[in-house]
Input
Amino acid sequence: DAKTTQPPSMDCAEGRAANLPCNHSTISGNEYVYWYRQIHSQGPQYIIHGLKNNETNEMASLIITEDRKSSTLILPHATLRDTAVYYCIVRVRQGGSEKLVFGKGTKLTVNP
Amino acid sequence: AAGVIQSPRHLIKEKRETATLKCYPIPRHDTVYWYQQGPGQDPQFLISFYEKMQSDKGSIPDRFSAQQFSDYHSELNMSSLELGDSALYFCASSPIAGGTETQYFGPGTRLLVL
Output
């Protein structure tokens, strides 16, 4: 079973920041937080991942709380093309081929 | 940049027929994963291979089998197809040896069983 809880849906105005929360209260010390998104029926797209420090790349920022029990994915300037289902996944990274366990995700709708 | 290639992109089969889905990972990626996504559902892990050996297995039916070849491409073989096998099948690859282990997904194969 998925180890994360996300709101089923969110709306965001185009050009504004989208902040997507994720709860992972049972996360273990060796588990990373990964974010993927899936634009309608396309293959899931990797966005970002982190362990305990905040991370930023060209797509998004990831803020992880100090106790690591929750995180927030931030899309700084959402566009219509960011409309997708966003999945927060916790996953062990130990040099093995650890599968991704997808939960329900958050359906983000970016409105004009 | 090169991406994961899946073929065919669309496939229509009759019940009880067989189907073979192919996956070509990103160059220098040694691990391949297969996922199934039914209509209105989230992707579910089926099976994975690392260096041509099965590394993990999910809820893959016994009617399905898969393997990874010496060039690292993988094939998912599906026999005695059922209506419920209609789904999107995604392949993902990752570079275990490189240490990042991030999985990158292909565009998927849409299978319709009639």
About this structure: The longest strand of chain A covers residues 84-92. The two ends of chain A are 36 Å apart (CA to CA). Chain A touches chain B through 22 residues (CB under 8 Å). Strands of chain A lie at 9-13, 18-23, 31-38, 45-50, 55-56, 61-64, 70-75, 84-92, 106-111.
